[in-house]
């Protein structure tokens, strides 16, 4: 939990808003990909959407002691294009989170000695690096006229770590065992 | 779709942000309710979360021709309390949407002659009225020491209309037939 309604709490809200919108956007783009015949890209979007849900709810939990309605400013990507364009927009959003948003939020959490917030931001940032790579790989496949190659994607329910084809024995981000991974198969 | 990036487009983004966060909050509060032994309240939260997902994605679709990253300011409720407290916070959020948010957004959409946006705001507002009533009923049950009475809740996948126990022959909000309802059972 956070100490009080400080800058870190505002950052948790903003990250919650951004992750909630990312969940919603990826669910939608996933349906577009499936409709356009890219089943495995649809499955990837669905798996990553679930990972963003894990991030959003982890942030919400750390913020649980602060009650009430708040105006939440958060960044979000918009627009519906071709699946190649949607994958590129998704990758750019992930890189913004890695380079700007979570990098800044982690620095503030450190300054304010907010350990729980620092951990949930750190886990999310490490996972977003993977998401950017997965979307890049999927875009390469789509741009060469194919579907995304892996038909199965695993997501760690503790931190959202996302891994194509199989689950690692131990989550490289949060240390959870293999059994904590959920499979998404197209 | 919207004509251009006008005030209605900004309102669609804000409503998308608010609905996305409502989805996430209700999913979380639903898990809390189940953990506390209120299975049917957990099921109600899950069904209403799905309805908010329908609202968010309907707004996203109307906004689909505007591309790029945007700072989205949206209202959201925070905090995790007892299930009775969570139901009350949920009801207050629904009433804010009915009385303030969607009432205002509909007026602006009318002024700007944005038909698609007006429809998605109107459908959501009608459904939020129902949500406020359902949360009030559930809170009454919980406050008298029982679980929420209905163990089954139906949601219209077109507009999010939410109905306990059974699906109406025709959705009273969007006119969709009975087959468009998804059942949530605890
Ligand atoms: Fe995330
Ligand atoms: Fe991500
Ligand atoms: Fe993990
Ligand atoms: Fe809604
Ligand atoms: Fe609602
Ligand atoms: Fe409906």
From TrEMBL, chains A, B:
Cofactor(s), by name: Fe(3+)
Keywords in alphabetical order: Electron transport, Transport
Rubredoxin-like domain mapped to chain residues: 151-184
Presence of the UniProt keyword Transport in the record: yes
Any Pfam family the entry gives: RUBY_RBDX
Domain Ferritin-like diiron: 2-146
Gene3D superfamilies assigned: 1.20.1260.10, 2.20.28.10
Gene Ontology MF term list: iron ion binding; oxidoreductase activity
Protein name: Rubrerythrin family protein
UniProt organism field: Alkalicella caledoniensis
């Amino acid at each position: 939990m956070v100490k009080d309604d400080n800058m870190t709490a505002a950052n948790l809200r903003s990250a919650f808003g951004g992750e909630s919108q990312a969940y919603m956007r990826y669910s939608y783009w996933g349906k577009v990909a499936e409709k356009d015949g890219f089943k495995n890209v649809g499955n990837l979007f669905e798996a990553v959407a679930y990972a963003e849900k894990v991030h959003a709810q982890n942030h919400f939990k750390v913020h649980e002691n602060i009650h009430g309605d708040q105006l939440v400013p958060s960044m979000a990507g918009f627009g519906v294009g071709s699946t190649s364009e949607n994958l590129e927009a998704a990758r750019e959003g992930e890189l913004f989170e890695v380079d700007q948003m979570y990098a800044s939020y982690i620095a503030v959490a450190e300054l304010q000695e907010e350990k729980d917030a620092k951990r949930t931001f750190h886990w999310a940032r490490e996972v977003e690096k993977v998401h950017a790579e997965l979307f890049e790989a999927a875009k390469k496949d789509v741009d060469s006229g194919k579907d995304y190659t892996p038909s199965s994607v695993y997501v760690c329910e503790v931190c959202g770590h996302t891994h194509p084809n199989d689950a690692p024995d131990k989550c490289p981000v949060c240390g959870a065992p293999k059994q904590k991974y959920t499979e998404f198969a197209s």
